[in-house]
Design the sequence.
């Protein structure tokens, strides 16, 4: 099992893997055809309140990560994503944020890997 993250605005190097958009809002300027999505799982994204509070401020990322993981704890969409990760040879989490190090896909990737390891 492989879990990768990629910015949706970057042209995919290859389309192998199950591509899931994990943003609550559809990315500006991206058509559905250009996105090459297998699924849009907006319910797994941070709540509107958390997303607005974080505002992609790297100084808030540690707190964001804790709060977001708390939201994921009882989120059925996260369980759906975890099941996908365990079923797919390669899962690609797509996001639109400019910051490649401080976004929800980074948190999701880390949590999915940890939870997959815990279940095996």
Sequence:
């Amino acid at each position: 099992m492989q879990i990768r993250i990629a910015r949706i605005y970057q042209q995919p190097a290859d389309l192998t893997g199950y591509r899931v958009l994990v943003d609550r809002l559809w990315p500006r300027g991206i058509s559905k055809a250009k996105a090459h999505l297998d699924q849009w799982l907006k319910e797994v994204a941070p709540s509107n309140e958390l997303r607005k509070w974080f505002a992609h401020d790297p100084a808030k990322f540690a707190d964001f990560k804790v709060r977001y993981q708390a939201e994921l704890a009882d989120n059925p969409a996260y369980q759906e994503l975890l099941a996908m990760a365990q079923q797919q040879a390669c899962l690609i989490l797509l996001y639109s944020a400019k910051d490649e190090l401080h976004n929800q896909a980074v948190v999701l990737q880390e949590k999915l890997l940890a939870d997959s390891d815990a279940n095996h």
